[in-house]
Prior knowledge:
This protein is mainly alpha-helical. It has four helices and no strands.
Amino acid sequence: MIKLKKIIxxxxxxxxxxxxxxxxxxxxxxxxxxxLYTDKDRPPFQVKEETITEAKKSDIKKMExxxxxxxxxxxxxxxxxxxxxDVKTSNPSAYRTLKDWxxxxxxxxxxxxxxxxxxxxxxxxx
Length: 126
């Protein structure tokens, strides 16, 4: 019960009985004015222009090679699993596992590729 009281107090502050709950508009207004804090001791996270550093193209290329190796290894693992376990629909456990792993492989491939395309097109690469 003490945890619940603490959570409610953190969410609504020192709201007295009968006072209205905060509305979305009032919370957004407070947020825009910088009155809302993510932690009691520090202001909300803000990105400052000078904190964004440019990466060297060689570092990005190295990261891209690593990502490509990871994706390639994932694909090899899937093929090895399929060969060793003779994956067929008649073996539902192995079939589901392979399908899950193939989804992870596709997601990783698209996420890594999409990120590197973004970085190369951005102003954050020297």
